[in-house]
Amino acid sequence: MKPYAFWVALVLLYACGCTSSKQAPKTERHDTAQQAQPAPTPTPRPSFEDTLRQAAARPTTPFEGNGWQSMFDGKTLAGWRETKFAGGGEIQCQDGLIVLNMGDPFTGINWTNSFPKMNYEIALDAMRVAGADFFCGLTVPVGDSFCSLIVGGWGGSLVGISSLDGLDASENETMRYFTFESGRWYRIRLRVTEGKIQAWIDREKVIDVVTTGKRISLRPGDIELSKPVGLASWQTTAALREIKIRQLD
Predict the structure, then answer these.
(1) What's the confidence (pLDDT) of residue 121?
(2) Average confidence (pLDDT) per 10 residues, the chain, 249 residues
């Protein structure tokens, strides 16, 4: 055999060996049964009516202390009237609740019976049903003046008194921020006495301000229609229940 023929045969033999040693790539198995499983169906959100029914069914907590008198019979708006806000939403009375439907911007009610000017407490349960601003704007007399306790204002979390020395709830020393959940009841209690205004949310005291020497007033604007006693919401649907008052010695 000629030398070059020997080398050609050797190269061909090596090439055949390498080719035969290669393995075909493995085919990855797929579980088609698992791929065919449908995505879980999302849980639907409760409707507006469902939210109100669930809210009405939740038990209320006892009022602390004695001498409380009801301002709401749980069935009618007796003793109350709709506040004549421009763009006000519908007022509903159902299942033991007063519902202030979302207005543009205000919806509210006024108390039409007698009410003390000093040394009293007023309390209620309030809930934000929809919206993202204050669900309780409680306007009350302080002597011959008036002020409002704002709960959940300025974007949904601010609590404070409007107004002290011309500064509203977002500007004076009563300003606090609180996390409020929609669909949850909050017990709101306001105490007005000589020289002091105090407020609680549930059992937490959130306002304790000395008013001696301070000018007490309402923020200029439509909220003045809530005088002398009123409850209002701002671009928010609110539910109210268990509205009560007691006079203090």
Answers:
(1) 98
(2) 49 47 49 59 73 91 95 97 97 96 98 98 97 97 98 96 97 97 97 98 97 97 97 98 96
Residue 175's nearest CA partner among 190, 187, 158 is 158
Q: Work out whether the CA dihedral 165, 177, 56, 187 comes out positive or negative.
A: negative
Measured CA to CA in angstroms, residue 204 lies from 106, 208, 247 at distances of 27, 11, 21
Length of the chain: 249
Residue 147: which of 225, 195, 218 has the closest Cα?
Answer: 218
Instruction: Count other Cβ atoms within 10 Å, centred on residue 226.
Output: 24
- pLDDT on residue 21: 45
> What pLDDT does residue 49 have?
85
Q: Could you tell me the domains of the chain?
A: 48-247 (2.60.120.560)
Q: What is the 3-state secondary structure (H, E, C) of the chain?
A: CCHHHHHHHHHHHHHHHHHHHCCCCCCCCCCHHHHCCCCCCCCCCCCHHHHHHHHHHCCCCCCCCCCCEECCCCCCCCCEEECCCCCCCCEEEECCEEEECCCCCEEEEEECCCCCCCCEEEEEEEEEEEECCCCEEEEEEECCEEEEEEEEECCCCEEEEECECCECCCCCCCCEECCCCCCCCEEEEEEEECCEEEEEECCEEEEEEECCCCCECCCCCHHHHHCCCEEEEECEEEEEEEEEEEECC
- The confidence score (pLDDT) of residue 249 equals 83
What predicted TM-score, i.e. pTM, was given to this entire model?
0.82
Side-chain half-sphere exposure of 199, counting CA atoms within 13 A: 26
